[in-house]
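hey can u check if this looks right to u? its 309 residues, i copy pasted from the old doc so theres a chance i mangled smth
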Amino acid sequence: MKLAVPVLAAALTCATAASAADSKAERLREAMKDARWTGPLLASNAETLPQGHFYTEPYFFDGISGGDHHPGTSGFYQYGLTDDWTVGMQPFFSLGTQKYNRDVAIGDFKLLSQVRLSHFTADHRVPSVALVTNLKLPTGKSDHLRAPKSGHGSGSFAPEIGINVQQYFLLKSGRLLRGRINVLKDFPLRTDVSGRSTYGTGADFRGHARPGSKTTVILGAEYTLTNEWVLAFDIERDQWSKTKVAGRDGPDGPLVRRTSPRSWNIGFAPAVEYNWSPRAGAIFGVWIVPKGHNTQSSVTPAIAIQRFW
């Protein structure tokens, strides 16, 4: 009979722990059911769309640097191919505001693919993790530019790989904090360059360029003030390796070799979300990038509207 006391105490302890875990799972489940999200301004989701569903999120922005304005639009247009595989496209358009560039220009588009490896639930609280494999298309004009027209592309195909991570945290207040981590790296391919170009070449230049690869790390967080209102914040670090250009200025011109230095910057983006239904919402924020290493400072106010179909 003496052994029954510790055995009974252990059983009660296990039952209490199981009851507490079940209670937390239920509270988390209800909080996730009530919360509405758009997503922060910069960090991408690690989840995938249910099979057969669409997601649209157009962005409208104005990049301001050195007193010049560079308005444009981008966004995400995605489709759930399977429950764990989402594909889509990210277009880019810019609006010229300078005297000789007052037109709408197409930038480089990106094809998107994301495969979910793990899925967060209230009962299975491991982070959602997704493998990202994208491809940047050289749809923007990059060379054969007429003076003083500006280019809006790289002219290079660029495969991109990365990992997206997302996790939910239930706070003591009963509100949710959602965190995201994105790590991305692209690998631009060599491209031919003719004439004036976005690489600073002259009208008679003939040669090629290899754009520097870009590495991006984004940390994002969202806090549910209410079911509809959400505060969001991102920190993003971008790093570019050297870009190399080689060729000749004219058929008989001297060989030209040019290498740009490595560069990097760190920016942050506070934002506010309002989600009027579980399937639709909007976000407004500002991406602020102080002067970095071989980069200029910029301020980019942006607004996006998301819709799940």
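The chain is about 10% helix and 55% strand.
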